User: What shape does this take?
Amino acid sequence: MPPATIRSTEKHSVRLSRPAQVAEEIKSWLVAENMAPGDRLPNEQELIARFGMSKGTIREAMRILEAQGLVKTRTGPGGGSFVHEVSLERAWALLVNYFYFKDLTIADIYQLRLALEPELAASLAGNLSNKQLATLEENISAYAEPPTSAEEERAQHVASLQFHQILASCASNELLGFLVGFMANMLADLTVYRRLYEPRNYELWRKGREHQAALITALRRGDAARARETMQSHMQTARALMVEQEAEMERRFLKTR
Amino acid sequence: MPPATIRSTEKHSVRLSRPAQVAEEIKSWLVAENMAPGDRLPNEQELIARFGMSKGTIREAMRILEAQGLVKTRTGPGGGSFVHEVSLERAWALLVNYFYFKDLTIADIYQLRLALEPELAASLAGNLSNKQLATLEENISAYAEPPTSAEEERAQHVASLQFHQILASCASNELLGFLVGFMANMLADLTVYRRLYEPRNYELWRKGREHQAALITALRRGDAARARETMQSHMQTARALMVEQEAEMERRFLKTR
DNA sequence: ATCTATTTGTACGTATGTATT
DNA sequence: AAATACATACGTACAAATAGA
Assistant: This one.
């Protein structure tokens, strides 16, 4: 059941450039024709003819659609532009652009995680295949032993976020899955970039591992309530530790400049 | 505290088109130089010279950045391309593209709303200015009386979603605000497009108004717990009714074709 | 209000690259 | 290996918009 329309609902008041207009027209045409991923758009020459515009303008329009992840273009015979399902990674990347200029804190992200991750965990209980459960177990085996170096600490930190990405990818509610994955992805970027893994924390490692192991058990048993509680504890301890680490790094940063 | 980077973390494996490469280079340049909204990019000629590429290629790159909402371009003297903060509406629109190909149900959206709206309400309690509270009250006055026509029903339905948009815009956690607003916006599109307001529902109208009025009171008093509970009830009843309406419309749709 | 300078926007011709058959 | 059917890239010429004199 697709949403109403893909067409931009932004203020039409602003004058769009011609390429942007063409891109919008193609989008609404795409909706009207109910085109699906893989369907081919008219080729350059046809589009030039239809819109009565130059090659440059049409090409710029295609680049716009491509940037939005809605079409992919291939060269060669049988090539051309094709409708494309916006990829998860592309959608994340576009969304990160929005938050780039905002001042998101670790606490902000954890407020969301605390609300969403337990919900996700509960909804997955009893609904995971053995293969999916095995993937989760394999993932936590990547940090079976406490880290012995900063490099290992970093790797394990990212791996433990990967655990949540896997859970997210299993969600039947695509909106929920998208958001949980987005936050894990963002935290992975942030921790690496801001070296949040640096103030080593044995406690974080031990509790995290405990929680994740307990969670897998609850998920396998189909115990939704338990899964929710476990995830909630996990998020609460992780939040406390991460917020503290953020503050610590903040202090270090201030000192050194 | 900006996130790690704005630069796309998508698989670099895929060969990017030259305009896309240029766009990525400009982005990372933008990050490295720590440029802020309003800052001017080199003009076309300079970019052509710097990258050693043709006008067309550079222009396509700029269209890509423009599509992502990161730059705006103006003609005329003193014109050129300028760094631009990605607008809320643009970010929503780009995200809608992702879900266009997914089968989101009303139930999916409400699962998220049920998790996030109460959290938002609680975090706003006692933190709203009189002006903000007045805006909320003005908004609910738009549906002080039960609707008397389908058209009025539609308008009121959209207005009551507007209520949540206002709350979202007050959030201090930008991530939380963005998501709550996004969902309200999406529901507004969906209800209009799929005529979900049509099976009239006096119950929805009455309870919704009651809840929203009670919520304003709790927010004014700074009673976070009460605000959370009220919003939770609101979401639960709304979900039940909307899901039922979705099913009803589904039945009608199936019948008529 | 008109002109002028600046900068983007559009058009088009040509040549090159690339993948399929 | 060659021919074909596409997109990709480049360069130039001119049009349109806008700010300032």
Summary: Chain B touches chain A through 70 residues (CB under 8 Å).
